[in-house]
Design a protein that fits this description.
With about 130 residues, this protein is mostly helical. The protein has one domain: 7,8-Dihydro-6-hydroxymethylpterin-pyrophosphokinase HPPK (Alpha-Beta Plaits). Helices cover about 35% and strands about 0% of the residues. GO terms for molecular function: 2-amino-4-hydroxy-6-hydroxymethyldihydropteridine diphosphokinase activity; ATP binding; kinase activity.
Length: about 130
C-alpha cells in the first residue's frame, strides 16, 4: 500500500530533521534497515521539500540518472531531493497526484500530473486504490 501526504510548514525546516523524524516513526513500527530495497514494515520517504534541490543539482542528477542495476546496489550517503526516482514510479506519483497534482519538479520542470502522464499506461493502471 502506498500513500502520499502534503505537509505545510509555517517556519523554515531542515530536510535532514524531517527525515530523522520519519526514520524514528519507521523504527517505532519495527523497521530495520538491513538491505537496500529489502522488505520493511513501514517506509516513509521525503519526496521533496518545496523547490529545494539537495545537496546540489549535480548530485541529484547523478542519482536520478543512475542505471537501475546500480540503483539496486548503491545508496546515497545523504538525502537527495527531489527524490531521484519519483518521476519513474507510478506507485509514488498516483497517490502524490491526489494531494499535489500541480507541484512542479524543480529540475525537470514537470508537474506531478505531467510526470505521471509520461509513464506507460500499464504502470499507471497497475496502481489501484484500496477498496473502500
Amino acid at each position: 500500500m502506498n500513500a502520499a501526504g502534503l505537509i505545510i510548514f509555517d517556519v523554515q525546516v531542515d530536510a535532514a530533521e524531517i527525515l530523522s523524524v520519519f526514520h524514528g516513526i519507521e523504527a517505532a513500527h519495527g523497521r530495520r534497515r538491513l538491505s537496500r530495497w529489502g522488505a520493511r514494515t513501514l517506509d516513509i520517504d521525503l519526496l521533496a521539500l518545496g523547490d529545494s534541490i539537495l545537496p546540489d543539482r549535480e548530485t541529484q542528477a547523478h542519482w536520478r540518472c543512475l542505471p537501475p542495476e546500480r540503483q539496486a546496489q548503491e545508496a546515497p550517503d545523504r538525502l537527495i531531493l527531489p527524490h531521484p526516482r519519483m518521476q519513474d514510479r507510478a506507485f509514488v506519483l498516483v497517490p502524490l497526484q491526489e494531494v499535489a497534482p500541480d507541484w512542479r519538479h524543480p529540475i525537470l520542470g514537470l508537474t506531478v500530473s505531467e510526470m505521471l502522464a509520461a509513464l506507460p499506461a500499464a504502470d499507471r493502471d497497475a496502481v489501484r486504490p484500496l477498496p473502500g
